[in-house]
Amino acid sequence: MKKGVIAEPKPDDFSARATSAWKVGPHVSSAGGVENAITNAASVGANAFAIFLKSQRKWESNALKDESIAKFKERMKTFGYSPSYILPHGSYLVNLGNPDSEKREKSFACFLDDLKRCEQLGLHLYNFHPGSTVGAGTTEASLALIAECINRAHKETASVVIVLENMAGAGNVIGSRFSDLGGIIKQVRDKTRVGVCLDTCHMYAAGYDITTLEGWRQTMDEFEREVGAQYLRGMHLNDSKGALGSKKDRHENIGQGHLGLRTFAHILGDPRTRDIPLVLETPAYDVPTGSSAAARESLATQGMGVWRAEVAVLNQLAGRSEEEVGEEEIGEMRAEIADAVKKASKARDVKGKKAAGGGGSGRKSKKKVEVDEDEEDARRLIEF
């Protein structure tokens, strides 16, 4: 190999992935090229993953490079990833429910661009947040606008399934109730190309108590009545920092929040969650600004270790009945994830102090930022 040429990664460079009908993995970075998402997923043992196809906070982004598209497709085959288990996430700016036609058209253009990127990469699914009334119209009117945009997008694309995400319920945001999602789908003409992604943190924050097996069953019964079981095309597996019905969308690491690990045991024991992408959006441990290359590499390793632990634990729970998973085992699994989180937190804090040069400013740099995605959506969609 020529000096300075980086070898193409191979599956043998990573630990073997679990064989399971339950496809678990995190939302990974595609920094440096969308093809890097695949090796990032492989490095944590993922059998599914999510990505952003462009900046989620900008209206326009550079086109995907032909070289990146080719490498992405090649690595998908080499690493044995199916497009059916990749769930790209849409832009946070998009609001297809905005009554303002000019602003809605701007959102639609951004939305359609993402769908076409999916087609360029050979991906089958696309997940997005439905939108908001922005306080300027009724929920029913916005549901119709969203469905109209989906129908338009279907005409301008060939195959991608558009997947609506349930929301936590802050402000005027649409989608916290299953009836909202069902109301949109009823107005979509090609129902083979629409579906739903259920976010566990969002469900709990919206008032769906899924912490018990009976609560989970009742919730899914409502989903079947209001939407239809056939429309479940993916899930976001997140624990919750917020309490039941809080409308606070604050994700926590698996087993470390209000939902608890037992919740994920009965979700992964349900055959309805087989053969769909089960994506972790749990807290990441970002590298503090100003960190050295060595510090960034060290922290990235520890941060990926959290996802690796979460994926491993969820794979152990997959396909097992409630009775098969004892409290002692649940405790051991919870401790395994907690230990990985502790190591990543410690690494972040140490690197944060060093990046800030120590002292008082170091304390400020290490502070963990709480992101309330739904509240952020509610504020942002007032404008868009």
**β-strand number:** 8
CATH T-level fold name: TIM Barrel
Write down the CATH class: Alpha Beta
Strand neighbour order, sheet with most strands = 1-8-5-4-3-2
Distance between the termini: 51 Å
CATH architecture: Alpha-Beta Barrel
Shape: globular
> Tell me about the biggest sheet?
6 strands, parallel
Helix/strand/pairing category: alpha/beta
Q: Helices, strands, pairings?
A:
Blueprint (H helix, E strand, L loop, with lengths): L22 E4 L9 H7 L23 H13 L22 H21 L3 E4 L10 H18 L4 E5 L12 H8 L8 E6 H6 L7 H14 L5 E6 L1 E2 L10 E2 L8 H8 L8 E4 L12 H25 L9 H29 L3 H7 L7 H11 L1
Parallel strand pairs: 1-8, 2-3, 3-4, 4-5, 5-8
Antiparallel strand pairs: 6-7
Helix pairs in contact: 4-5, 9-10, 10-11
Cofactor: Zn(2+)
Keywords: DNA damage, DNA repair, Hydrolase, Metal-binding, Zinc
Pfam family, one: AP_endonuc_2
